[in-house]
Amino acid sequence: MVAGRFQGAAVAIAVAAVCYASCAMAQQEDPYTPVVLRNKNGVQADILPIGAIIHRLLVPDKNGQADDIVLGFDDPKTYQLGNSPYFGGIVGRVANRIANGTFTLDGQTYTTDKNDRGNTLHGGFNPFFENNTWTIQDASDNEVTLSLLSPDGTQGFPGNLNATATYSLSDDNTLQLVIEATTDKTTPVNLAQHSYFNLNGNCRNNILSHVLYINGLYVTPTDVNQIPNGELAAVQGSPFDFTTPRPIGERIGAVTFPPPFGGYDHNWALFGLGTDAAAKTYIGVVSEEPQLAASVYSPLSGRAMDLSTNAPGLQFYAGNNLNGSLAGKGAYMYPQHGGFAMESQVWPDYLHHPNFPQSILQPGQLYRHIWTLKFYNHSAAPAPSGSVQTRSLP
Ligand SMILES: *[C@@H]1O[C@H](CO)[C@@H](O)[C@H](O)[C@H]1NC(C)=O
Ligand SMILES: *[C@@H]1O[C@H](CO)[C@@H](O)[C@H](O)[C@H]1NC(C)=O
Ligand SMILES: *[C@@H]1O[C@H](CO)[C@@H](O)[C@H](O)[C@H]1NC(C)=O
Ligand SMILES: *[C@@H]1O[C@H](CO)[C@@H](O)[C@H](O)[C@H]1NC(C)=O
Ligand SMILES: *[C@@H]1O[C@H](CO)[C@@H](O)[C@H](O)[C@H]1NC(C)=O
Question: What's the CA gap between 215 and 377, in Å, rounded?
């Protein structure tokens, strides 16, 4: 087993050999019944056909107590009512923002939904990838593959886009998502997983005491509407510097932008990428294999999680806009900072910034984004400090 970043010593895992039969293929007609993936350590992921949403994610804490660590709703139908802040699902076709809801490709101008202060956010209205029923292609006790065809013109984007999402859960407590897509016309693609986590379990308290590491040296500054200005700002010495693990809440008060709440909702350039990023990516990825992008642990529960990806960016969102008005699981009113999202993706508004990594898919090419979570117990040993781990890029 590969050691987690916050793991000082090997951790013994109690093994309970239990097998569960999956009836996923028979569930085809019911998009609200999850496919349940389980491993031998009591980790469980419930995946819904609507939106390919991670509906529940049970992970044992330092005492072996399994709790649900993702935000969401008890009734899966609630995800579609229009007030979910993208809980759990896959967003697209182009995650994050497109300035003014317009872009030009091969000399042709396209118009997308202006669903966020005059700009496009996560594809547009009716978040297509989150609010539609994916077809279960294949399912077993530890893996499910879902597919979705996004027809030519959906949300204003060109081309029929075929997407597949494969979630697999292994006995080393790794939940991996591989998102693939093909097209029949040149089109931008940036599909991202938008789960909110709270490693305290059962979405208790907020996430401000969670300790965070991010493997990135720059963020991409934005205007008030969160449209990047095209520059890269070094994180060193700023509240955005998580190259040494720090509590999320330690300096969040100093992040007063974006208005009105401030707090982290920013894109980090991963893996030492900087102004040279565009030259080092291919259809939105930096490598075939995922690399460590971020780690986080809860001192309360001891749960720790490593996120690895092959995407060039990480939108880290600290749940700034949650405000206690939204009733989630167990009728719990999610408070501000009640969860955080770690959306690996291509950088925001890349379609207007040629110096940013690009993700334009051509017919015959394959888009392949990997988002991998590894769960383990944070050990008492001090977390390794510091340096950014950069692997050689293609
Ligand atoms: C953490 O440790 C407990 C006690 O040994 C164990 O039951 C649990 O499975 C571990 N959790 C993870 C995520 O490894
Ligand atoms: C979006 O519109 C604003 C206001 O008209 C303009 O200043 C800005 O340059 C536009 N951005 C892009 C990327 O077209
Ligand atoms: C999601 O889809 C449902 C049913 O297809 C529809 O009633 C609902 O308005 C959609 N939700 C959003 C947020 O677009
Ligand atoms: C998308 O899937 C459909 C149905 O399986 C298939 O007919 C079509 O050729 C696929 N298109 C692309 C671009 O992969
Ligand atoms: C809380 O957030 C919701 C959803 O964004 C919003 O509609 C509501 O007005 C907010 N309430 C307060 C008191 O700010």
Answer: 20
Q: Does pLDDT of 35 surpass 70?
A: yes
Neighbours of 163 (CB within 10 A): 24
Torsion of CA 359, 360, 361, 365, to 10 degrees: -70
Is the minimum distance from the CB of 99 to ligand 2 under 6 angstroms?
Answer: yes
- Which listed ligand is nearest to 363 at the C-alpha? 4
Atom of ligand 1 at shortest range from CA of 303: 13
Q: What is the Å distance from ligand 4's center to 162 Cα? A: 6
pLDDT digits (tens, 9 = 90+) for 249-275: 999 999 998 889 999 999 999 999 999
pTM value is 0.91
According to DSSP, residue 190 is labeled B
Q: How far is the CA of 99 from the centre of ligand 2 (A)?
A: 7
From ligand 2's centre to the CA of 100, what distance in Å?
A: 6
Domains assigned to the chain:
24-377 (2.70.98.10)
pLDDT tens figures, 282-327: 999 999 999 999 999 999 999 999 999 999 999 999 999 999 999 9
